[in-house]
Structures are given as C-alpha cells and as structure tokens.
Amino acid sequence: MSRIAAVLFDLDGTLLDTAPDLVGTLNHLRVAEGLPVAPVETYRRFVSRGAIGLIREGLPDQGEAIREERRLRFLDHYARNSMVHSRAFEGVEDTLASLESRGIPWGVVTNKATFLTLPILDALGWSVRAACVVCGDTLAVNKPDPAPVRLACELAGADPAFTMMVGDDRRDIEAGASAGALPVLAAWGYGVEEARAAGGNLYATVEHPAELLHWLDGDAGRRTGDSSAPG
User: Fold this and answer.
1) Same domain for 76 and 108?
2) Is residue 230 within 8 Å of 203, Cβ to Cβ?
3) In 35, 154, 174, 192, which residue has its Cα 20 to 30 A from 41's Cα atom?
4) For residues 175 and 60, is the Cβ–Cβ distance under 8 A?
5) Dihedral angle at the C-alpha atoms of 142, 144, 147, 148, nearest 10 degrees?
6) 202, 47 Cβ separation under 8 angstroms
7) Rounded distance, CA 177 to CA 200, Å?
8) 21 neighbors 81 (Cβ within 8 angstroms)
C-alpha cells in the first residue's frame, strides 16, 4: 500500500501548458497598443506570475491605473480564450489515471481565480475527478502562504506529512514545505529556474509526470532534491 495519502498539483506549468493562451492574451493587448506579436517562448517563463506578471514584462509601464485597466482587459479576454491552445502536459493524464487506479486522491491548488479555473477543469473533465480544488480566491491568502495547501489536504482527507505538493514555481515549493507537506518540483514547468535558485527542502525533483509514481511508496518523511526513486 502506498505511503502517500494524496497528491496536490499546481495548475499552470504543472498540469497544463497554458502558456500559448496566456501569452496569446498578452499579444491581444500588445496589438491593441501598437506593439508586435511576440513568440510564446519570449514570455513562457513569466506565465506562473499571472496576469500582472505578464503585463509587467510584456507592456511598457504606464502607472498603476493603466496597469489595472490592462489587467481587467487581460482577464476578460483570457476567460473567453483559456482553452484554445492549452493542453495537459505529456504524461499528465496517464499519471492522474494511475493515481486514481491506486485509490490515491489528487487535487489542484492554484493561484488562478475560481472563475478562470473551474471552466478549464470542466473542459478537461477534471472537476468531477479532483478530490479538491483550491483557487487563488478560495481563501484570503494564496501560495506561498501554506493555508491553501492545508485546506486542500483537509478536503482530500489527507495528512499533509503524507501529501505531495507538486509545482513548478517557488511559491508552490514554499507553500508545500510550510504546510508540512512534501514539496515536489515539476522540472518541465515555467518557473523551475527560479525555484531551483531559491533552494528549499524538496522531497523530490521530477523530470516527467510519470516519475511521480516512483515516489508513492517512498519514505514520506525523507526530503531530498534527488530525482531518483527512493530506496
């Protein structure tokens, strides 16, 4: 029987490659302001920073009032175009199915707002499969605060000490560690370099979603940055 009680996932850059649609929305704003369309790869690494992060990187700063107006236009456009080109990363669907076949609940802990998150999960058929979904506005705080991870563990009926928190961003790792969960760095995601630079006490670093399955029977009290299966 697995030592892991549940697995929690970040959404953008961990379960889903949402960069094409998020950068597509940024380009919608850029074109409206007379700027050229930028390649997705130019801004991919900033996707985990959300709308404001993309706006700061992709548009000239014109003050707080303009930034807020851009943010509202960004969210409006993205809400209508969030699943045009976005797809689950290779191996994610098989990994979720494998967790389910083992009776291990999985959930989503994202800083994305509920009104953006749920339609995406519905489109993928994941809403009815996830044991819990904690969004950026579910609580008064979001990652890197540990409260969303703790709430997700409670909803999933899992002890944080035996729950993986998988994410590609520094905030995922910090939230998981502070909640007493097992932080796992998803090395295929967007914010990996910053997360690596920040260090932290990782349970594991995985290069592909399927590698998570190798850790399910490991010592849930041991923490390491090594991506090999536990002995």
Assistant:
1) no
2) no
3) 174
4) no
5) 60
6) no
7) 8
8) yes
Q: Are residues 95 and 184 in the same domain?
A: yes
- CB count in 10 Å sphere of residue 141: 12
Using alpha carbons, select from 187, 188, 214 the residue that is nearest to residue 7.
Answer: 214
Q: How many structural domains compose the chain?
A: 2
Residues with a catalytic annotation lie at 10, 12
CA angle 80, 108, 91 (to 5 degrees): 90
Beta bridge partners of 17: 87
| Average pLDDT, rounded, for the chain | 91
Contact yes or no for 134/109 (Cβ under 8 A): yes
Q: Name the DSSP letter for residue 36.
A: P
pLDDT of amino acid 199: 67
> Would you say the pTM of this structure is higher than 0.70?
yes
Tokens 């729950």, residue?
163
Same domain, 10 and 24: no
Q: Are residues 45 and 147 in the same domain?
A: no
What is the C-alpha separation between 24 and 222, in angstroms, rounded?
41
Structure tokens at 92: 């994610």
State pLDDT tens for residues 144-191: 999 999 999 999 999 999 999 999 999 999 999 999 999 999 999 998
CA 198 to chain centre: 17
The number of angstroms, rounded, from the C-alpha of 14 to the middle of its chain's C-alpha atoms is 5
Range of the domain at 23: 19-80
Query: Is 61 in contact with 33 (CB distance < 8 Å)?
Result: no
AA identity, residue 37? V
